[in-house]
Amino acid sequence: MTTRRPIFLIGYRGTGKSTVARLLAERLHCTWLDADVELEKRAGKSIRQIFIDNGEETFRDLESAVLRDLMNATDTVIATGGGVVLREENRLALKNGLVVWLRAPAEVLWHRLNEDAMTRERRPNLSQGGLAEIEEMLRLRTPIYERCADFTVDTDAATPTEIAEVVSRFGRQT
Ligand code: S3P
User: Fold this and answer.
1) Which end of the chain is more exposed for a tag (fewer CB within 10 A), N or C?
2) How far apart are the C-alpha atoms of 48 and 123, rounded to whole Å?
3) Counting Cβ atoms within 10 Å, is residue 41 exposed (0-12), middle (13-18) or buried (19+)?
4) What is the CB < 6 Å shell around ligand 1?
């Protein structure tokens, strides 16, 4: 039986959390999941629709509930939503696992998000939208991501496979 604590991937939208989670789980021979997909399954609708019907606060409540259920998972890599670090209760839950922060400059994220088909449904605007929104969110969130992270990876200079490799080496040591 193995009981490795979960690895949580945190970081802003477009940092590649889901892609890296899958590749990392392959390397570590464990399972992976995307917390936003779990949330959408439970809610029976897309995140965009939750924002429209119920508002961001309800989305954040669901996000916390999903995290509470996942925080004790073993041998699992979990890709979290970009705003999971905003609530104190979530930051405490993340301490149950190994927290890896994937980061990239705002312009890089802006280009990636424009090319990502998931963006429309999974990523409703959080404020004014566009590059200005990303810059603003990074300004607000970077210190929080930094505080939560056990390990940080710059994703603009590496492929998802390379990132998974670096994280898996770190994961094995801990
Ligand atoms: C959000 C990021 C999204 C999703 C929701 C809110 C955020 O997840 O949870 O749209 O506040 O940054 P991804 O980081 O997987 O895009």
Assistant:
1) N
2) 6
3) exposed
4) 13, 17, 36, 47, 81-83, 122-124, 126
Most ligand 1 atoms within 8 A of CB, residue of 12, 13, 113, 139 to mutate: 13
Nearest CA to ligand 1 atom 3: 81
pTM of this prediction? 0.96
Q: Would you mind telling me the total number of residues written for the chain in this entry?
A: 174
Position 121 scores a pLDDT of: 78
Residue ranges and CATH numbers for the domains of the chain are 7-173 (3.40.50.300)
Nearest alpha carbon, ligand 1 atom 2: 82
Tens-place pLDDT, residues 64-83: 999 999 999 999 999 999 99
Neighbours of 123 (CB within 10 A): 19
**Integer CA distances (angstroms), 92 to 72, 83, 102, 168, in order:** 12, 14, 19, 23
